[in-house]
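User: Fold this; tokens only.

Assistant: Input:
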Amino acid sequence: MDEIIYPDEGYFGLKYSSDLIVIQVTWVRGRCMDVKKQFDRRIAEINEKAGLRKEDIWISLVDAGREDWSFGNGEMQDAPK
């Protein structure tokens, strides 16, 4: 079974329960910090409404350039030719 390993004291003063959820989002680079912060807050709010603790929502945003994506055929359609 895979597991997430983190310190008992958590990070930045947060204590996690056994219900910790890790969400990783990969999107096209270019969003400003305010948009990223709003996204994280909204995801936490949605999960809280579903009965989860906001502290247990661990989000990782991965910024990738358009050239880093392949939409099929093993080709990077937006990469330089």
